[in-house]
Amino acid sequence: MAFTSTHWGNYRPVVRNGKLTGMEPAPWDTDPSPIGQSIPGAIDSPTRVRRPAVRRGFLHPATRHDSGAQRGREAFVEVPWDEALDLVAAELRRVRDAHGNGAIFGGSYGWSSAGRFHHAQSQLHRFLNGFGGYVYSKDSYSLGAGRVLLPHIVDAMDNLLQQHTSWEVLEQRCELFVSFGGLPARNTQVSPGGASAHGVRPALRRMAAAGRTRFVNISPVRDDMAEVPQAQWLAVRPGTDVALMLGLAHVLLAENLHDRAFLASHTTGFEQVRDYILGHADGQPKTPRWAAERCGIAAEEIVSLARRMAGQRTLVNVVYSLQRARHGEQTFWMAVTLAALLGQIGLPGGGFGLGYGCMNYIGSGQTSFSGARLPQGHNAVAQFIPVARIADMLLQPGAPFEYNGGQHRYPDVRLVYWAGGNVFHHHQDLNRTIEAWQRPETIITHEQYWTAQARHSDIVLPATTALERDDIGSASNERFMVAMQAAIAPVGEARDDYAIFTGLAQRLDFAQAYTEGRDTG
Question: What pairs with residue 384 in β-bridges?
Fold first, then answer.
């Protein structure tokens, strides 16, 4: 039996009498994730969507478009595939003809399958582009603030993530690893597209055993650096990391420990930053004592850490979670500023990191590559929303919003098409999300399970899992590309997303453009 790729590792499926009974970790993975062992119990779970289903009130033309308040409450009726696809195609055509493609939101979000061909988001966007376009979302819940901010400071976020110093180099050259948010190795079980060989926890253990590198865990939680039990723990007050960084920066400036030559040759705006930190701009010096009152760490500890950072090869790391807050982008901004003051950006084992301890591939040292996939095509609709503004868009059509220095307006969305992900899992303020979710005229979802997303839809189409279809598993900066073969037959009447969209494209008269004459074989 061939291997299959999941976001948390590569496994060999164990099948007996057509039933998935186990998942054996790939022999090349020295630190496999136990998450894979949950797959056999989930494949044939009672919560699987086995056949196409339509919300009862949506089946009746008289109540079809004014029954959104019943989403999440009303029962579903299973229907044949042809009836379901005819209904989806009719709704897409109706909304486009009456309101234009700008009334369709392609809301796919989430990692879905690790397989690159059957990546649900890619298939949905290719399909909707072929249909004339759709309103799309930008950025991610994980890195929304960072992705917008960092191109104005250093580089695009994706480029930075690909260029992080490898753990091997850190083992050899880093003397002080200071991590805001710790290094929660539990998060490094995953990589988008497949974690082929887990290397973070072994690397941390090697570094700790060698004794060359000292670690500082700046987090409210001691266990955020559990793999390095001898790490120094500074229990920062939640949400005050920037204040602590400012206090550290004040020490570097006041004691002339900053790298003047690096700042002069590689940065702009140092004078303004210096004047703010020293209090020349607002009358409030950001001293260690000022920082201590806010972050809960003693001023003496702040002074000591700043001196150590200046005297050793230091890596300043910030985890993703710190920018998921109001003004959270300032944590990334100040981390880069702090590393610039130290002057070690670009030196082996020094500088800054944005995401060590967040995913497996960061620090892998592997070259980035892109796996096989179909092109997305061209989206003729220019309207978009930041990904975390879904509820705002649905509740306030036409209202203005600001994004990345520009002025925009929310579109008037009548139809939401979702494949891959669960908005009720991703989105903030569930009560407001439920209220907003009642507004569209039509909500269509591809799902394997009866999630909250599926239960709050109008039409639910059963999708296969990665174990039920052929695919190609590949992840940026991971070691292996995996040829994934279907291990078991689809549960119920589930179909892969490509087959579902091909059936719809046939009904909407662009099947040749969508498939390019190809099938999944």
Answer: 136
b/e code 155-191 from CB counts within 10 Å (16+ = b): eebeebbbebbbbeebbebbbbbbbbbbbbbebbbbb
> Could you tell me the pLDDT band of residue 290, with boundaries at 50, 70 and 90?
very high
Determine the distance from the C-alpha atom of residue 341 to the mean position of all C-alpha atoms in its chain, rounded to a whole number. Answer: 30
The confidence score (pLDDT) of residue 1 equals: 59
SS (H, E, C) 201-218: HHHHHHHHHHCCCEEEEE
User: CA nearest 199: which of 168, 226, 174?
Assistant: 168
Residue 169 to residue 93: CA distance in whole angstroms = 55
Backbone angles phi, psi at 442, to 5 degrees: -145, 135
Q: How far is CA 33 from CA 21, 42, 43, 350, 356, in A?
A: 17, 17, 18, 29, 18
Q: What one-letter code names the amino acid at 240?
A: T
Overall average pLDDT of the 414-425 stretch: 94
Catalytic residue annotation: 109, 111
Output the CA angle 374-103-108, nearest 5 degrees: 40
pLDDT digits (tens, 9 = 90+) for 478-519: 777 888 899 999 999 999 999 999 999 999 999 999 998 887
